[in-house]
Amino acid sequence: MKLDFLKRFDFFVGVPDSQLKPLCNYLMATYGVGEHHLIAANEGNAVGLAAGYHLATGKTPVVYMQNSGEGNVVNPLLSLMNDKVYGIPCLFVIGWRGEPGVHDEPQHIYQGEVTLKLLEDMDVAYFVIGKDTDEDELAKKLDEWESLFAAGKQAALVVRKGALEYDGKVKYENENTMLREEIVRRVAEAAGEGVIVSTTGKTSRELFEVREARGEGHGKDFLTVGSMGHASSIALGIAKQKKERRVWILDGDGACLMHMGAMALLGAEKPKNVVHIVVNNGAHETVGGMPTVASQIDLSGVARACGYPKVLRATNEKELDAALAVAEVAETLVFLEVTAAIGARDDLGRPTTTAKENKEAFMKELAK
Question: pTM score, two decimals?
Answer without folding.
Answer: 0.95
